[in-house]
Specification:
alpha/beta, Rossmann fold
């Protein structure tokens, strides 16, 4: 089964993608995972992506699609996949469809819906350990000791892009960029919506129902 999981920053799609993939017996990956892996291994695609990122410009779709398709075509992922937050543009969605023609295309696209106010609350409370990078959330999963990581004792801090005004802009940009992709998959009849403000377990249950329909 080939599944795309979409949702705004703070919707929990990374956690849900991993859980859903485990339940389906397939692999999950995000484009961010692939960028980091290719750059760590210093592959040709990784070097190409880095050349654009260092200039502060958008990595071309063909580079991103190349990474995605290399991963998809790995024999270890032949059972299917859950893509986390990819594609990000309609052009990427169309390119992905073209590349998957011989593999049956995408079976399901599921959007985790979370209100903007709830996203700001979630992301605005996120803090991260400066040593081991474990995340906490002041609103939903605070550390046992204020300002200290429970795992390594490192100090906790808030990233600039998790501050309220930046979060609001990130959500606005996401909504603007994502709408054409949602329309594209809705027209194809493969898009489902799930309420992302339920408890984590309930969201997971709803996702499994959505992809079994």
């Amino acid at each position: 089964m080939n599944v795309i999981l979409m949702g705004p920053p703070g919707s929990g799609k990374g956690t849900q993608a991993a859980n859903l993939a485990e339940k389906l017996g397939v692999s999950a990956v995000s484009s961010g995972d692939l960028f980091r892996d290719h750059q760590r291994r210093n592959t040709e695609l990784g070097q190409l992506a880095r050349s654009y990122m260092e200039k502060g410009v958008y990595v071309p779709d063909d580079v991103t699609i190349g990474m995605i398709m290399e991963w998809i075509n790995d024999p270890d992922h032949s059972a299917g996949f859950v893509l986390d937050g990819f594609p990000r543009t309609q052009a990427q969605a169309q390119a992905l469809d073209d590349a998957l023609t011989e593999r049956g295309g995408i079976d399901h696209v599921v959007l985790i819906n979370v209100s903007d106010d709830e996203l700001v609350r979630r992301l605005g409370g996120r803090i991260i350990c400066s040593e081991c990078q474990i995340p906490y959330n002041l609103n939903t999963s605070p550390p046992a000791v204020d300002g200290r990581c429970e795992e390594c004792g490192g100090s906790l801090y808030q990233r600039d892009d998790d501050k309220a005004e930046v979060v609001a802009r990130r959500i606005e940009v996401y909504n603007e960029e994502t709408q054409p992709i949602l329309d594209y998959y809705r027209r194809a009849g493969i898009l489902s919506d799930v309420d992302g403000e339920q408890p984590v377990e309930s969201v997971g249950d709803a996702l499994r129902v959505a992809v079994s329909a």
